[in-house]
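Thread: Newbie trying to understand structure tokens

Hi all, I'm a second-year student working on a class project, and my supervisor (Dr. K.) asked me to get a predicted structure for one chain before our next meeting. I've only ever worked with sequences, so writing a 3D structure as a token string is new to me. If someone could post the tokens and maybe explain what I'm looking at, I'd be very grateful. Here's the chain:
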Amino acid sequence: MRATVEEWLGESTIRHAVYTPAELEKISGLSADMQRVWRRRGQLPSHGSGHARFSIPEAIDITLRYALSKIGIPPSDLKLDLSKATSAAMAFAIFSHGGCEVVGPADDVDQFLLQFSEDQGELGVYLAGSPKEFHYLVLNEWHESRVVDDPTDLVSNAEELSIVFNLELLGSRLVERGRKPVVTIRLPDRSGQRTVRWLTGVGANDS
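---
Reply by user tm_fold:
Sure, no problem. This is what the structure looks like when written as tokens:
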């Protein structure tokens, strides 16, 4: 199955969402004014002279840092590898209503949507980067991070303090508050077939 997914999507163009400052504010809660303050302090990525745009990993990173700032942990104090958390949150986003957009020949789009709904989540997980754990991001008192599924793993015997983030909630925010799919798959064109555009779960044909 996995080889088939890789070969099939290898011919496709996959594009991930980017967010404006206003969209980032809705997702993270960090106002556009405070985004400018954080950028001046070097706490947000510099985007040069153009309009600011934020990738999915940046939106997740900023959302987490803003949440931690509200309990007294300055964003400058955190040096986190959030790659696993980003992939897990992406998976939940992809499986949210409208989280994935697919564009291409009608027959191929139908095949994609059928496989997406019937393969026990394999296609969606692959699109998210194939995370191994999904549900919770845990930070300990030393700001070390891990992603776990089992609630009994939220606190280890060596830790007195843990901060837990619900990655399912964070992933769903990307779609519900960002108001756009997190990934768009453009399937190769086929001669003689009309091009359609559908969203997973809530498909809307704009052919």
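A couple of things are worth pointing out once you decode it. The chain has a mean pLDDT of 86. The first strand starts at residue 13 and ends at 16. Feel free to ask follow-ups in this thread.
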